[in-house]
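Supplementary Methods, section 5.1.

A reviewer requested that the exact input to the structure prediction be made available. We therefore reproduce it here, unchanged from the version used in the analyses.
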Amino acid sequence: MADWLDSIEARNKAQAKYDKAHTAGFYMKLNTRTDSDIIRWLWGQPSKQGAIKRLIRDEISRKSAGL
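The structure derived from this sequence is encoded token-by-token as follows.
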């Protein structure tokens, strides 16, 4: 195997190990008919993950402030 393939494989293994220890993934299924507004809004975001995190953090902040 070429050295660069070994390097890629090592990097992938390291990333998988990190991900297993430090991350959680979530899947959201949206209906194209009833959730089209959400889908359109998400597609307009430069970072879907960033936009979702921002909305969740705003809600957490609002709840902790008693709003």
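The radius of gyration is 19 Å. These observations are discussed further in the main text.
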